[in-house]
Amino acid sequence: LYKSNSQRLATSDTGITVTGEVAASQDYPDLKPTLDLNFAGTAKLDTRVTFTREGTGTYYGKDGLVKFASTNEPRFDHDPVTRECRGLLIEEQRRNQFRYTTTPGDSGWTNSKSGTFVQNTTETAAPDGTFTATKWTFTNNDPYLYDAQNLDANDPYTISMWVKAGTNMAGDRVQMRIGASPYSSGDIEVIPADGTWRRISYTRTIGGSAENSASVGFEPQTSPSGNPASGDVIYIWGPQFEKGEFVSSYIPSHSNYEAIRGADKCYIDGQDFDDFYNQPEGTIVSSHSLLENVSTTSNCYTYQVAPDSGTSEAPFRLIDRNSAYGNSLGATSINSNSNVCFFRASGNPVTVANVKMKVAFAIKKDDFAASFNGGATSTDTSGALSETSDHLSIGYYKPSPQAYLNGHIQRLTYYPKRLSNTQLQNLSS
After folding, report:
1. If 0-12 CB within 10 Å is exposed, 13-18 middle and 19+ buried, where does residue 347 land?
2. Can the peptide bond before residue 74 be classed as cis, meaning omega within 30 degrees of 0?
3. For a Cys-Cys bond, which of 240, 340, 342, 375 suits 370, CB 3.0-4.6 Å?
4. pLDDT in tens, 67-89
5. Is 91 left (phi over 0), alpha (psi -120 to 50) or beta?
6. Phi, psi at 170, each rounded to 5°
7. For residue 196, what pLDDT band results from cuts at 50, 70 and 90?
8. Which helix (H) or strand (E) holds 241?
9. d(CA 31, CA 194)
10. Whole-prediction pTM value?
């Protein structure tokens, strides 16, 4: 390209060459953020961040294998296929109601079972890369593995397990059962035909009556339905049964006790909070995504800036799916004198599970604004502003009752200034 007989831009084998200055119409802030937590980019915590969790947590490492994080160890989860870092994993507390989950089918599974179970087989590596998988060989054409559980009325439960095809089972199924019918069916229970591991899961909400000593477990079948043959084989690892509307990360149990993974709590408070936060005005930009299969009725919080004293004042609050707000993604500012809310109200659900959502939210007295994924900026020009905040909770709602993101936070950035509406759109695009 030429201007006034002078070359301004030329392409090359590796890109472009520009002569002179480059001007862009997009507007970005000229000040640096005082807080920039790039969880996906660095896969580590800033020294100002406090993280706690009771019990072992699991996640996918950058090699695509399941990893185990000890108490108070944060989890930087990865996509097991693309190996992309998904960010910091935040989950609510869950309990695996199966016992002896590291040795499924052994004497600890006392309800009912059919087939032979060889623990710690060396014929294939487990999803964590070790030889801890179980080889399940069918001794007749009706194999099954069930545990007895008491199921509360009207509550949702989720069952899951990793499966891999052995002899004659590629592309077949493992039907999952949670008490009475309906049982799992369709693509959610298919064993991969390419020889890889797959974590299958199924959720059922119990009816109006409790089910006591109900059979909960797995029953291999041919596809689309039917009985496998005696001598057919599948490999299994990591069975889990939990109360909840979606499957959470694996919680291993090595004994006759139900294992619990505590909730992930991540926050900044004290002097570290005071050093980056500006009480009169500011802007938070965040990128997050929800776990796959998170229900539209779950209350999911990405972050909250608020006083420790209670819930009446919250200059910043990002809520993803909250029943009080029509299950919309909402940026809210709440204190005793005002309730400023911005909603992205299109779509059902509004935020798609396992898809990144980017939000920019700015506050200042009588001057609030928010933009979602580069969309039109919503504003409110009337509202008081609390100036007594003393903590930033990341991925959860700190006051009781607590609510958790149940997803990943890729990045969280704070500017000590109310950025312009155009900048909010650009930063959230």
Report:
1. exposed
2. no
3. 342
4. 999 999 999 999 999 999 999 99
5. beta
6. -60, 125
7. very high
8. strand 233-243
9. 51
10. 0.90
Nearest to 331 by CA among 299, 366, 363: 363
Q: What is the DSSP letter of 192?
A: P
If we measure between CA atoms, which residue out of 219, 193, 194 comes closest to residue 138? 219
The burial of 298, by beta-carbon neighbours within 10 Å (0-12 exposed, 13-18 middle, 19 or more buried), is given as buried
Euclidean distance between CA atoms 376 and 8, whole angstroms: 34
- 12's tokens: 């090359």
- Please give the Cα distance from 352 to 350 (Å, whole number): 6
pLDDT at 23: 45
Q: Residue 238 has what pLDDT?
A: 97
Q: How far apart are CA 395 and CA 263, in angstroms?
A: 11
Query: Are the beta carbons of 142 and 114 closer than 8 angstroms?
Result: yes
Q: How far apart are CA 370 and CA 376, in angstroms?
A: 9
- 171 φ, ψ (degrees, to nearest 5): 80, 0
CA separation for the pair 290, 93 (Å, rounded): 16
Q: Give ∠ CA 289-292-296 in degrees, rounded to 5.
A: 80
Residues in CB range of 146: below 8 A, 6 or more apart? 109, 111, 112, 113, 177, 215, 216, 217, 218
Cα angle, residue 198 at apex, residues 93 and 221 outer, rounded to 5°: 110
Give the chain's end-to-end CA distance (angstroms, integer): 29
Give the pLDDT confidence of 253-274 residue by residue, as tens digits.
988 889 999 999 999 999 999 9
For residue 46, what are its two tokens?
């800033």
